[in-house]
TrEMBL record:
The lineage of its organism: Bacteria, Pseudomonadati, Pseudomonadota, Betaproteobacteria, Burkholderiales. Belongs to the aldehyde dehydrogenase family. Keywords: Oxidoreductase. The keyword Hydrolase does not apply. Coiled coil: none annotated. This is Aldehyde dehydrogenase family protein. The active site is at E246. GO terms for biological process: gamma-aminobutyric acid catabolic process.
């Protein structure tokens, strides 16, 4: 397969060819991606700028029809597209199909949002004057997405951007061009006017500065590392450019003495290790109170050691490969640094040999005995979790909040008192009770606090806050 950029309604020719690797089988490449250059990125911005005025004035029915058509095709092809996603990113096939289904549902939801227009008609405090308050599109928006959810995250940025009347320049992660190309192909055939949606398969170092510097780009939405996010914040701040950031997470799961043991272990395993731990919402810090600690630790270790690591497309695989060799080496390096900093390896952490050559790693569980260690501070973004024991709920809550991140937090308990208190006092944008921290709905806000997020929330009705601007109009009767 060949993956190319889509600019102004045409597939961009040329560019340096790179192999799209299959992390489950290095001898089975997914396809060839063609890297766009700065000229192509500028052309994409020009195309979006030319198309934005007409699309911004398009009717809600037209936007609904396009987005609904996109959502329907994604859902109809979820197994095919899920297989592509699993091959290039490494999620297990059931997880990949689930992600594709979510992308389709996101487009369906925002098709409805195009029709669910809000606004106000008010009387002024001045007699004989009327007031209208409405939301209008921004114009051109730049969207930068990561590799770990290669179709869902583009969907939850592209769909609201289009629903609210904006033109789009999408830059996906270089590691996963296939899923973004498949989405672009569906949008290309959806009846969307040329130039309203543009895909650029290019390096972040090329795309980022252009999106920041071009005045035609009214806003940028970025999901990725905290370091890049902070640089974008500084650059966009100088230009007063609207910005939305979703960055890292170091999410706690607090297990109390009264928790249902099996339920707590399941929450920990799914939250920490599924999707190979490559989720910003992963439960990478597991905190357990002393009364249940011994039983929970033994059960968690046993469950971790039983996890089946293997080819993403093979039936029975629970944990797929790490996305590529660079990320695998990064995870191994963090494991070694964690041990040097005093963490004890309880189990896992070793490479796994399978029938195919891939980036397979057994999920790792680390014990930490003092707060502030590297293992509890740095986002590893792999199948690695720490386990810490605290004396009681109060100590557990304090440790859970002792992080520069604040995306998600979870608690396992049968105590309504502690559940309610945790929901109120956990310093996170999303809180789960007796559920894995990873796993959110598409119709409600997504986002965090502290170093995890900046700007308006993503998803659900909250997405309008970023993708629109408010206009207040006065008229004398």
């Amino acid at each position: 397969m060949q993956f190319r950029s889509l600019i102004g309604g045409r597939w961009w020719e040329g560019g340096r060819a790179t192999v799209n690797e299959n992390p489950s089988d290095l001898d089975d490449p997914v396809g060839t991606a063609y890297e766009a250059d700065a000229e192509a990125v500028h052309a994409a911005v020009n195309a979006a700028a030319a198309a934005a005025p007409a699309w911004g004035l398009s009717g809600p029915q037209q936007r609904f029809d396009v987005l609904d058509r996109v959502g329907s095709e994604i859902l109809a092809r979820r197994e095919e597209l899920g297989r592509l996603l699993a091959r290039e990113e490494g999620k297990t096939l059931p997880e990949a199909i689930g992600e594709v289904g979510r992308a389709g549902q996101i487009f369906k939801f925002f098709a409805g949002e195009a029709l669910r227009q809000g606004g106000q008609v008010l009387d002024s405090v001045r007699p004989g004057v009327g007031v209208e308050v409405r939301r209008e599109p921004l114009g051109v928006v730049g969207l930068i997405t990561p590799w770990n959810f290669p179709i869902a995250i583009p969907a939850w940025k592209v769909a609201p951007a289009l629903a609210f009347g904006n033109a789009v320049v999408l830059k996906p992660a270089e590691r996963v061009p296939g899923s973004a190309w498949a989405l672009a192909d569906i949008l290309h055939r959806s009846g969307l006017p040329e130039g309203v949606f543009n895909l650029v398969l290019a390096r972040g170092s090329v795309v980022g500065p252009i999106l920041v510097e071009r005045p035609e780009v009214a806003a940028i939405s970025f999901t990725g590392s905290e370091g890049v996010g902070r640089r974008l914040a500084a650059d966009c701040g100088l230009r007063l450019k609207k910005l939305q950031l979703e960055m890292g997470g170091k999410n706690p799961l607090l297990v109390l003495d009264d928790a249902d043991l099996d339920q707590a272990v399941n929450c920990a395993i799914q939250g920490a290790f599924y999707s190979t731990g490559q989720r910003c919402t992963a439960s990478s810090r597991i905190i357990v109170t002393a009364g249940i600690a011994e039983r929970f630790a033994a059960a968690l270790r046993a469950a971790t050691e039983k996890l089946v690591v293997g080819h993403a497309l093979e039936a029975g695989t629970q944990i797929g490969p790490v996305v590529d060799g660079v990320q695998l080496e990064s995870v191994e390096r963090e494991l070694e640094l964690a041990r040097q900093d005093g963490a004890r390896l309880i189990c896992g952490g070793q490479r796994v040999a399978r029938a195919t050559q891939g980036h397979f790693l057994q999920p790792a569980l680390l014990e930490v005995t003092r707060p502030g260690t590297r293992a509890d501070r740095v986002e590893v973004f792999g199948p690695v979790a720490t386990l810490a024991v605290v004396k009681d709920y109060e100590a557990g809550l304090a440790l859970a909040n002792d992080t520069e991140f604040g995306l998600a937090a979870g608690i396992c308990t049968t105590s309504l008192k502690h559940a309610q208190h945790f929901k109120r006092h956990a310093q996170a944008g999303m809180v789960m009770v007796n559920l894995p921290t990873a796993g959110v709905d598409y119709h409600v806000p997504f986002g965090g606090r502290k170093g995890s997020s900046f700007g308006p929330r993503e998803q659900g009705a909250a997405a309008a806050e970023f993708y629109t601007t408010v206009k207040t109009a006065y008229q004398c009767a």
